[in-house]
Design a protein that fits this description.
Nuclear Transport Factor 2, Chain: A, 17 strands, alpha+beta, 4-stranded antiparallel beta sheet, 547 residues, 27% helix
């Protein structure tokens, strides 16, 4: 998977525009020749079209080329395919710029031919109005032969949209949303100045309540009088637009997370989520850099060996591993489609499953690949951990992916959190909470969020085993960075390969009392060495559970 992803920035917007200013916007064209467009031919300038047994394919090709040029923003080229190039170029350019269209999907449909030889190609338009939404409609392109016998688009305003005419045009009216204040669980206002690593999440929190609304109106060209509304975007804000967003963030945990990441990341990118185990409420979210996107909620990372929590649950649920004391040999290498190895080619002959988990033995887990069905790991992830369902956290989130394996090596890689398995700190903090409590509580970050994802309860025997193995990871395994902390802290480390020349991503998930935490450090090399000090400092700074 790619090492980093980048979030899109919102562009500055004018409050009201009409389509008069030329610009070039890159879009995409979808051509579906077999699709019949929903164009009503019983009205408008193309009302008398009659299907013919055969339509000249060159005419259809010219219509498709015109749509491709229009969608791609090459209006000069599109206009050159018409019988009125100057008017066509000006109209297309001002239509796209004035309505703030950022992407155009134009799909060719059914072609018909009239008795006078005019060919008409129906099409559907799906236009994305920047920061508002999608506008869909149907129209059609008439084509006639010119004096030289070449097909040309017979230019007329209604081909752009059937309601355009010499007396009526479109106008985009936009109303910008008012970003409300965002409060922590105690009612204190949160800001990026106080918590810079919370800023990406704050942008999502404020943006979710302060969205723009708008409409495309049909207006009289001379008077500007509104004659109709083509489409609307967004719902008007209900009540006071300044109504605060009340979050579940705990200022003590957030401050500790900010300080720990600023001190220990050494300029690397990373993300962290801490949440309550009993109800899934998010206590802290930290993203580095603070001016990036919300990696903690929307990042897509290979979870590496932290995923062995889910794999272990699946193996115990189906009886492939009886208990943590079951012997599962840990060889230096194991081949399952391809050769898998351990860090430094380590091996632990005659190891128990608990030992395999604690020292993060890849080969032991890979050797059990055949014990699970192709889709069993994904089913356990969804049925018990809520992964792959749609989570309603209060802001956008990526809720994990465990696709069915394509082959033996793909399946083996999934066992150790590599291959196509994708997660983020939000998801892995939730996995940790579910593992040690047995009950999936879908995470939420706003107090009014209504959880939509559900899952079954893990058997008590599986929960007891997972807690024991995570504790052993701290006392005698790869998570000893947390060994000196008071309380029965449990953890799991992960070292995720990202490919190319980039260093591995480092992961660590941990639990103590009623709190679960997950941290990833990009190019952190190892989980214990990079994410470990971050979580250790947080648990040291906040020694007690939230009330």
């Amino acid at each position: 998977m790619p090492k980093k992803t980048h979030g899109a920035r919102r562009r500055a917007r004018a409050p009201r525009r009409s389509w008069t200013v030329p610009t070039v916007v890159v879009g995409c064209l979808v051509l579906a020749g077999a699709t019949t467009a929903a164009y009503a031919t019983a009205w408008g300038p193309f009302a008398n079209l009659r299907p013919a047994e055969a339509v000249d394919p060159q005419a259809v090709d010219e219509a498709r080329a015109f749509l491709a040029d229009w969608a791609g923003g090459t209006f000069e080229q599109a206009a050159g395919r018409t019988d009125d190039p100057d008017t066509a170029r000006r109209t297309l350019s001002s239509f796209v710029s004035g309505l703030d269209i950022g992407k155009s999907e134009l799909t060719a449909g059914k072609a018909t031919q009239d008795r006078d030889g005019t060919v008409t190609v129906a099409f559907t338009a799906g236009l994305t109005v920047t920061d508002l939404g999608r506008w869909e409609y149907a129209s059609a392109i008439p084509l006639k032969r010119d004096a030289a016998g070449a097909w040309k688009v017979n230019w007329r305003l209604p081909l752009v949209h059937p309601h355009l005419s010499s007396t009526h045009k479109f106008r985009l009216d936009r109303k910008e949303g008012t970003a409300p204040p965002v409060l922590d669980r105690a009612g204190t206002r949160l800001s990026g100045a106080t918590y810079p690593l919370l800023a990406p999440a704050l942008a999502d929190l404020a943006g979710s309540r302060g969205k723009d609304t708008g409409a495309i109106h049909l207006v009289n060209r001379d008077s500007g009088e509104i004659k109709g509304t083509e489409t609307t975007f967004g719902a008007p804000a209900q009540g006071d637009p300044g109504q605060p967003v009340r979050t579940t963030i705990d200022s003590a945990w957030q401050a500790a997370a900010e300080q720990a990441m600023a001190k220990n990341l050494d300029g690397k990118n990373g993300a962290l989520v801490a949440l309550r185990i009993d109800n899934g409420q998010v206590l802290a979210v930290a993203n580095a850099p603070g001016d990036g996107f919300n990696r903690a909620f929307s990042g897509t990372y290979a979870p590496a060996s932290t995923w062995k929590i889910v794999t272990s649950a699946a193996l115990m649920l189906n009886g492939a591993v009886g208990s943590p004391d079951t012997v599962v040999d840990c060889p230096a290498s194991f081949t399952a489609g391809k050769k898998f190895t351990n860090v430094a080619d380590a091996e632990h002959r005659g190891a128990t499953f608990l030992k395999d988990f604690a020292v993060s033995c890849n080969t032991a887990f890979v050797s059990l690949t055949g014990k699970l069905g192709n889709d069993e790991l994904g089913k356990v992830a969804g049925s018990y951990f809520g992964i792959g369902q749609k989570w309603s956290t209060g802001i956008p989130s990526y809720d994990g992916s465990v696709p069915a394996p394509a082959g033996a090596s793909d399946k083996a890689a999934a066992m150790i959190g590599q291959g196509k398995v994708l997660a983020n700190p939000l998801l892995m903090a939730s996995v940790t909470a579910t593992a040690v409590s047995g009950t999936f509580q879908q995470p939420v970050i706003t107090q009014d969020a209504k959880a939509t994802a559900t899952a079954g309860k893990l058997p008590e025997s599986v929960v007891t085993a997972l807690r024991r193995m995570m504790r052993a990871t701290v006392t005698e395994g790869t998570g000893t960075v947390l060994a000196g902390l008071p309380g029965e802290v449990g953890a799991k480390t992960g070292t995720a390969e990202v490919g190319g020349d980039s260093a591995n991503n480092g992961w660590l998930v941990a639990h103590r009392g009623n709190v679960a935490i997950a941290c990833v450090v990009e190019e952190g090399k190892t989980g214990g060495g990079s994410a470990g000090p971050v979580i250790k400092e947080i648990l040291t700074a906040v020694p007690s559970d939230p009330s």
